[in-house]
## 1
Amino acid sequence: MLKADPHDKEKLIDPLFAPPGRRFWGALLALSAIIGWGAAMYVRQVTLGLGETGMNRPVYWGLYMVNFIFLIGVSMAGTLISAALQLTGAEWRRPITRIAETLTVFGLLVAALQILFDMGRPERAAFVLQYGRLQSPLLWDATSLTIYILTSMLALYLQLLPDIALLRDNFPPKGPAWRRQLYSLLAFGWRGNREQWSRLDKTITVISVLIIPIGVSLHTVTSWIFSTTVQPGWKSTILGPYFVVGAIFSGIGLLFIVMTMVRRLLRVEDYIQMRQYTNLGWLFIVMSVVWFYFTYTEHLTLAAEQETQEFPVLAAKLWGEFAPAFWGMVALMIVAFGTLVIPKLMPAAAARVPVFRPRYALASGGVAGVLLFALLTPQSTPVSAALANVNTRTVVWILQLAFAVGTGLGLSLWLKRELVAASVIAGACVVVAMWLERWLIIIPVLTHPRLVSYSTYLPTLTEIALTAASFALLALLSMVFFKLFPAVSIWEVAEGRAKEEAAQGKAPIVKPTPFPRSTLRRRLGP
Amino acid sequence: MSHWSMVIDLDKCIACQGCSIACRFENNTPAVKPSEAIRGRAVRWNDVFPMPVNPTEETGEYPNVQTRYMTRPCMQCENPPCTKVCPVQATFKDEEGLVRQNYARCIGCRFCTVACPYGVRYFNWHTPEWEGSLAEYHNPDRIEGEGDLEGPAVRPLGVVEKCTYCIHRLQKARARAEAEGRPFRPDEYVPACVQTCTGKARFFGDLDDPNSTVSLLIKSPRAFRLQEDVGTMPKTVYLREG
């Protein structure tokens, strides 16, 4: 019988066996309804054809492809958090590895679903195995995705194994029989003896080493689907690392959101603490800087060479029909960066300055919003008519930016106090911005082909329904999973606690010595 | 073995679109509804369009304007970007240099349509339909084998299709020569667009024969290929105007 720490048992094990509340059933029902709507729309799409989507010639790929790349991107979080941090011995990872790994597995499964949505003849999917051509980048991606899904499932399961055994041994007498059987089956005879622990430890280390190159390969190969073609705007050598960086970045963003939801809804505040937010925040800031660097490089080369076929793609992003998405993405990224960085730079003494108050920030933000509206609307209002002069417009732009910065500064002390809220805001900004980035990588290139007239693309209801259903499925799978298995890894946290206590000298780790001192002395002689 | 090629003399082309119509009836390409055509879903294996397609700068002010037209079948590249990306070998270049498409194999991933720099590939967004009696006058030719369906056979929903240089005509010509017990001559085979061309602007033949019309024409100083910088080495060659 494996015993859990009483606090862990009360906080992590017992809630799993409590009957689900009204909120759980409500969420389950709502998500199932969305998924049902999506399923009906998918059946319709398969029957009537992909013509039900907004895709056309030359925009042969649309929302499904964007979602695919976005989803495999956010799934990178698990690899990074659990494998990379484990190998580098970052202790603070312990309470959030489970959440990250779960996101990886379900994110990848839902991503694979997008490919199925996008196929003209989904019933021929097995042809990829039967007649697969290894020369095709699409097959590299299918191979890499399959390996990645299997490895991350294995990683999740191995990390779960001791916890499942704990659940089996702490099963309440009145619990449902099927769950008892499920846990005994999945625990796979885990008794927690030294032999088993040492084997598990080795296996987890091997998997963690393997999963990093596999994860990097998936994101790189996915970028190669685009960069190995001759289409203007995709022929880029940095697309591979750009995708990897974006994947890690959006993964951390989604992790911030999900770990906060888990923390609030499952009431595990004393496990997921400020330390996790602070450290993950530093990683986030680093990735943010790298992302800006890559984005700048990617666009600078196109802007500098002004090649006849590539430049229209860039122009569409900078001031054409994709400008709202592009500048929206940049603005969100700046907000995300500022939300985490500016509070760190604010001296505590700033609290005494009465300007740094949320109400002034709100006022400043309001002014900035009005100015932005006046600048961007066509010349129809009296305000915007006054802005016809180029010089006035420049001044107003500067004013607008000043007010926007003022908003940030005004909020910074509040953000400094509320680290969780700041992290969630930054995470949400990045998740949206990274989705927009995927959109901006795929769609503008397809709408600006070489020998077909420029086109536009707008998703239809079918695509929106399937997208909503995909994200609902991701939420539903995670929700049900965290109802069956602990969202915080019990054994990892316990291990961390033991290490910490040993470091503080409370309970020294008993090192198994092959020979007791006395035996040794006896052997060596007097 | 032959190496099929088409030469289009733009000096003679009058942009009458006869080639497109001949192609449509020869290869059973469906005519889509106007609402679909506006969304860019018309299927034109052979297309005629103004050149340049996407003017990046003004070409002139009325009345000093200039319009040029381009007629475009499949380029039948020697180095096709489309076949390289196909995950299931539904599209491939055969030993005679024709880029073929197997409708029974295609999974509809549309990677080839994205990879083609010429936009010659089309996708069946809906089940093809023909209005009224048009459905009764399909070209009955089919190229069908175990696990493959090619040529003018009516395409199923959700697969990619493209110009094949009327490959069924090649097969029929070969079969006829065999039935008559004589060797097959390359000049027995011409695609429908070449046969119908009003201005006799299109020439077709075998590049392996140094004396064929196409072999002689591609040596012309007027000869050029579309998007030569992409490195696809098309076998559809144009002769420049003027």
## 2
Amino acid sequence: MIQVHDLTKSFGPHMALAGVDLSVETGEFVALVGPNGAGKTTLLRILATLIRPTSGSVRIAGLDPVKEGEGVRRRIGFLSHRTLLYEDLTAEQNLWFYAKMYDLADSSARVADLLERVGLTSRRHDLVGTFSRGMQQRLAVARAVLHRAQLLLLDEPYTGLDPLATQALTNLLTELAEEGCTILLTTHDLNRDLKVGRRVVVLARGRVVHDVPRAEVDLAAFPEQYMQLVR
Amino acid sequence: MRFIRIVWAIVVKDVAAEFHTREMISAMLVFSVLALLIFSFALDLRGAVAQAAAPGVLWATVAFAGTLGLSRSLTREQQTGCIDGLLLAPVDRSAIFLGKALGNLAFMAVVEAVLLPLSSALFDVPLLRPGVLLVTALGTVGYAAVGTLLATIAVNTRAREVMLPILLLPLAIPSLIAAVQATGGLVEGGTLAEVGGWMRLLVVYDLVIVAVSVLTFGYLVEE
């Protein structure tokens, strides 16, 4: 699903990505961990076609995000700690708007189904600005998967969520992964987010410095190993 | 056809969001009415003086009220990252620009629908004429287009509130001058043919600005 080779991105003199190599298979759930400034968000924004790489090659489902941006955008869903939702619109209006942007044929059924799935049917006519952070993030997940995205790019989606909302989001993501959705999630919270991924990739100083299946990670020993990797 | 549907969806979304809060339109209307009243009382505009000054007063008010609305329109997209939501959609980015610009045009048109009769009454000048309405439409199209483009740039800067007027007003000068001159000519009893030069300038300005904006918007919104 994702093929990244020798990817670099510079912002003026600062090199955010310094030669990233990463391959993610269809259906994988990858947790991309790294300290602040490691380049996680930059990598995700390149994959999401929001910024252009400086050099290197990127393919998503065989498509080049720079040259075939529309095709890539049709296949991806993007979620960050910012909800990308209009607080001055209702939950239903937000999903309806994005359904139109993606030209969905079954907008009504899909919007109703997703509102039900994220537990917001009873609040569908309420303005998003009146929602709690957890409710907004659940609706943001609905927005991200509205067009049946094959690849979900999640940029620290747990930021600001309480334990209950965190659990609800984890359940949703697990369901999506079980349905075959490829998920790439960035985080710097080792205690919580490593548990949801099935593969752990550590990014530091703009490079992948560690890449192992989740099953091989000793959660108790990993924080110390991680500190050595990112130092 | 899909392109038009996307443009329309963005316009409807902006109108619906504004319908819920009425923040932008009420700010624009209050500012416009107060500005007109201040001009009216401060300059004591009557008779021939009013005829000469009313077009300038009208367009200065439209320009500043428009700037308020343009700034708010793009700030709304930026606050919760919604601009990313738009850019992530599999659509031509020129459709996003046109949707935003048409939404801004609609809000400016609502303000002008109040300003024109109010100015007519306050200054006792005939502004509700087909010719003046045409000039108003042409002047507003160019202003909304260039304003939407520059608001997109300004909203990403630290001093976004002050940056938009600094960027916008110099670029809007040709359109504003042409609009003031054409409106003035028509108010003084001239015909559309007599202000044809200013009208042509407005049309050319609109075409150039819309074309440049459509072509450059995609590059401007990329980081």
